[in-house]
Description:
Elements: H1 2-21, H2 30-42, H3 53-67, H4 71-82, H5 92-111
Helix pairs in contact: 3-4, 3-5
Amino acid sequence: MSATxxxxxxxxxxxRSLLSTMPARPAASAESEAWRTYQHVQSFQAPxxxxxxxxxxxxxxxxxxxxxxxxxxAIALFLTxxxxxxxxxxxxxxxxxxxxxxxxxxDATMNGYGPPDSPVA
Length: 121
């Protein structure tokens, strides 16, 4: 026990001597502090949102899928039937079709209807 304590005390002495030899940090000017703060705030800014039509459709599809429990299954079924692994693999007409389907599914769910492409119960 005393060996461990003496090792810890030796480490503490070494750290104290190291800290005592360090020069004092120079005082920062107001301008340098302002730049440091600006860079800190900028590092937490979200990147600009992609507003291309394809990106907007992708976000809409993902929003609907996240909102409803059936959403991920609907996307997986669509991708499987189209032979695509990801939304990015879809062509523009296929993405348009999925976008319209998801909007129709959302509308049917919100209004209490069944899915538009399934038979009447």
